[in-house]
Every structure is written in structure tokens, then in C-alpha cells.
Amino acid sequence: MNASLPRFLTVGRQPLSWAQVVDIAYGRAHPVLDPDPAYRELLDAGAQLVAQRIDAGDTIYGVTTGFGDSWSTSVDPTLVHALQQNLVRYHGCGVGPWLDESASAAIVASRLVSLARGWSGVRPELLEAMCMLLRHRILPRIPSRGSVGASGDLTPLSYVAAALMGERDVMVGGKLQSAHQALCDVGLQPVTLAPKEALALMNGTSAMTGLGCLMLDRARRLARWGAALSATFIDVTLGNPAHVHPRIHELKPHPGQGRSAAWIREDLDFGRRAPTGGMRLQDRYALRCAPHVLGVLVDASDFAERVLDIELESVDDNPIVDVEAGVLHCGGNFYGGHIAMAIDTLKTAVANLAGLLDRQVVLACVPHTSGDLPPNLVFPGAVASHGFKGMQITASALAAEALKLSMPASVFSRSTESHNQDVVSMGMHSVLDCRQILELAETVAAVATLAACQAVDLRGPDRCGPRAQQLHRSLRDWVEVVMLDRAMDLDIETVLTHYRAGDLPTGAYT
Amino acid sequence: VKQVEIHAAVREMLAETFELDPDRITLEARLYEDLELDSIDALDMVVKLQEFIHRRVAEEELRGLRTVEDVVQMVRAARQPNEEAG
Q: What percent of chain A has pLDDT over 70?
């Protein structure tokens, strides 16, 4: 029992990293609020500062005033609780596909990390309740659409606030439940939000940030898979491994390019294998420039990592409660432009990897470029068969769709909310695009894996490098070689299932 | 005398948090086998323990807690310096 105790992460003044948010999202780690008495006093002092200001009759945005463009409407102090409830309720207008449990957990975790910094005037009880949701995996059911990404992800985050209030629905272990019932089941009372708490919960970039963390994780895994496939296609098409010679990549020192070239060298066992013979002087760009295309993705992911980590350590609500100075600052830290830019960049690089893999599949299907493998990777003797002709078209269709979605979301600001929110980030669209592009690109990689391993069978595994051999060996435990024409849709699903479970030996992202 | 008091407090905490019969929470009782706590319960116990001792409980410390007596010893050790100082 003790060996299987879960990991826990202390949440408090110190932010969590994007990778820790991913661990919480997948239930590999659980947040526990910092018990340090000085920290708890800081939180209490923030909540008290808000309460004192209300008692003093001060005008506090979103606490004793209306929201957004309605800021000039005063709200009577007797209605401050109702105001917070109403904010949650009128934003219950999200639409579109529901986010899954890991996405919801990533969003709750991101919001928790930001509020726990101690600048938002929320009570420790609220943060404890958020930790409880994550520890017990009571995850708000959040619709994906309805955020413009400035004044934060108001509508998606209203579903987090509602769950804490015991309103709307949550997912528990894959089952839909009323939030009220789920809270009661673990002995948690619905939270009565104190003045400013609904605003603090909703006024931030945590939906795009939480999802962005998950996208970064997926993009990096895919980058390594892309390198493994590039190495395999170099092997099966009798490509020239000299294109990944370390000297070449030292002389163009983008870090991601160097790392990608190193992965391909590792996968080819570069420098230790005797030349196979019959190779070309120069390969087409889909093989020769594979480290360059992958390198853009790796470097884009480093950019995204930096942005996500800074966003996670940001206090991104409004107003900000400055306990030390005893004042509240009104600003616009909920503007998600950095996440939008970083994830737009990441998604473009992911889409280009889908394009690269699609090109590699085609190279392997054409004898002229495949080192004379049978056309369409048809098994010898299957004269009436067309092998991977249909799979090529699937890969091309998916790659084209991924590329089409790579249009930047960050340039589509539009004025809304009575022109108070007249410049917005659209960062939520960036992450939703990125998620869809990843889905498509992973599927192209699955098709490419099936094609590459078919080619390994045709070339002979002993003529291939260690990565090609490992991929081929694993795949053949799940999917048979294609000898006569047959449907391969389930084969694609099988590869994706094993990849997502971590069973495909793509190599580690190092 | 101290040990008895702390045991009583720990017993109350565990009984209340996990809806257990206090009589089962003897010093020798094993948390996971006898009291049947699961991994999420272990985290809830960490939260309660931290409230008790006003400091973080490390993951390694949690792994070292096997019986009620282990929990009592941890609370006792955490409270000792304060009492001496006070």
C-alpha cells in the first residue's frame, strides 16, 4: 500500500510549473495547500482587506460595482454576495464539446496556482475546496466554447466556480453527477462565495493556460515520435544518414534542431553501423530536413514552456489585492495574449510536423524515392492489391486539415461586451485549435508508423536501425503485416491507443 | 501522559475525518490494512496532520507512516520544540 501512495504537491506562494500542472491533470500528483501559518495569515489578511473596504463604503470594482462596462453601477453592500453568485450564473452560457476530465483538472489546477499566490483576496477555505476537487477528482464539466480570452476565460471558469458552489454538473470517475451530490459524497459543503471570490475564480487565463500545459506535453511527445519515424523512413528508403552528421547541426545551432538530429542519430545508431549501400548522395527534404522541421517544433515548445511557466506564476485577476500596501489595483492581467501567441506558434509547428510525416509516407510509397520498395508498399505477389495507396490519401487529408487549422487565432480580436472588452486575446481558440491539430497530427503519425513498419517488413528488419526494429517489433504484437488489401482503420486506432498509453517505443524526449 | 493526550487527539481527528469507530484507532492499528485508508484518504490525512503541526509533511514522511503510533510520534516530535521554547 505505502509504495502506491500518490505524490502530492504543496501549493502556496511558490507557483507550480507547467509539468506539475500536467501531473495533477492526469492524477499523477495531488495538490495540498501550504499549511505554513504565516502563509495562511497572508491569505486571511487579503480576504479581510476586501471586507474592510466594503465596510468602509469604498467603491471596489466587481465587488460593490457591476462588471465590465457596467462598472459605473453601484451595488448596495447588502447585495455583495448575490452579485458574486450572479456573475457565475450569467456566465453559464458556454457551448461546444465538453472538455474531458484531464482538461478540466488542468484548468482547476491552473486557477488554484494563480489564486494561491496570495494576491487575489480569496479565503484559504476556497483554495482548500479547490484542492479537494482535484484530490477527489470531482471535475467540473466545462464546455469548450464561449471565451474570448480577455477578462480571462470567464465563461469556462464560471463552471469551476459553479462546481464549488454545488451548482451544475461534474464528472467523477467518468460519470456525470450533480456538483451538489458529488461534494456531499466526500463530505464537502458547497462553498458560499465571499465578495470578490467569484470574480477571482473567473477573471483569469486559467482555461487556456491549463489546456496549454496539456498541449505542450502532447506536442513534445509527438516531436520525439516524429524523430523516430524520420529515422525509420531513412532506414527503409535507403536514405543517407550523413545528413544527420553532428558537424552539420553544430553549424546551425538552433537548440531544437541539434536535439532532433541527435534523436535521429540515436535511432539510426549513427556512426556504428556499416553503410547499407545503394544510398543516394542527397535525400529529398522530407528526410534531409527532418531535424530542421522537428527542430522548429522543439524550439517552439521551449518558447511555449517559458510562457506557460510565467503565466502560471502570474496573478491574472482583477482587481489585485495588495495586502502589504493595503490597496487594490485595477489592471488587465487577465489578457491572454502571451498564451495565444505561444500556442499559435506551437500549433503551427505541430501542423508542419504532420505535413512532414505525410511527405515521408509518400516517399516510401513511390519506388523512385523509396530505394525500389514495391509501389504503395504492396506485399510481393499481391498483384491485385494496392497496399498503402488509401493510407497515403488519409495522411494527406489529415495533414491538410491540420495545416488549415494553423491560422493564428491571436489576430482575430473583436470588440465585445458593450465595447469594454474591445481588444481580446482569443487564446482559448489557440489552444482548442492546437488540440485539434495534435489529434490530427498524432493520427498522421499513426498512419506513418503503419507504413514505415510495413516497409521494414519489405526491406528486412536486419537492414534497419535499432529504433525501426523496436517500433516494428512492438507494432507486430498488435497489428499484422498487410499481405492482401484489407481495411486499416482499426489499425490506426490501435496504434493511437498504444501510443497514448505510452506503449509505443518512440524514445524519450531528452 | 503526553503520548496519551496526543493519541486521543489523533484518534479524534482520524475518527472524524474518515468516519471510523474510535475504538479501532489503537496505537498498533495499521492505517492501510486495519483502518482501510486508501491513497486519497492518505492525502486527506496529510491535510489534517499539517493543520495539527503547522508545517508541511513531506512525501517521504507520509510513506513512513504505517501505524497510528507513527502518526502520534510525528505529532509529538513536531510539538516538542514549541513546548520547550514556550
A: 99
